Amino acid sequence: xxxxxxxxxxxxxxxxxxxxxxxxxxxxxxxxxxxxxxxxxxxxxxxxxxxxxxxxxxxxxxxxxxxxxxxxxxxxxxxxxxxxxxxxxxxxxxxxxxxxxxxxxxxxxxxxxxxxxxxxxxxxxxxxxxxxxxxxxxxxxxxxxxxxxxxxxxxxxxxxxxxxxxxxxxxxxxxxxxxxxxxxxxxxxxxxxxxxxxxxxxxxxxxxxxxxxxxxxxxxxxxxxxxxxxxxxxxxxxxxxxxxxxxxxxx
Length: 251
Prior knowledge:
The protein is of the alpha/beta class. The chain has 9 helices and 7 strands.
């Protein structure tokens, strides 16, 4: 699990699961690139926390739903570090409505960030990984992409597409020394879920329906992400790793 001198890029790395992944990579010696959209202060703080572990880091503002921004993110990483070893496709949004109330704008916004944003950074990073003959890509999907969820069909569709994308890239890139996997979290205690968890009865219902009896922390998801990037996970490719406390049991 020693990741010294490796380079990890995490999209949406300033908060939630992405921020936790940055910290976990840094704790194991990897240099880090924190991608963010708006909150520069949070991204800078994430870089500083990583630096306290003796690694190098930088924050890069980029909207990964735009291919040109994703290309710039990867190019700045190569310019600074000369390589990219780990790419975590974490940037995403969770919003929706009943299908008859779901607007085109919400549908497009969800697909642009969750799905196109995953494609854009992979498209930009893979040529460098092919040159290295090494790379690890981890896509943060969701249980919603495995089972569907009412009133967020747009989100579930984007996450299901990420799963198909993972399997396709795993088959395509494995011969080049690049492993591609997904993690599929269930409920996680992040600011994305803060509004729904503000209702104590709702949170209690989630805890009661989860076999381990609690909601995941961001680090509960981050460590499996890092595991998939490590030598311990070197023979795992095209896999969807369920990290949901047993709430959704998918083979």
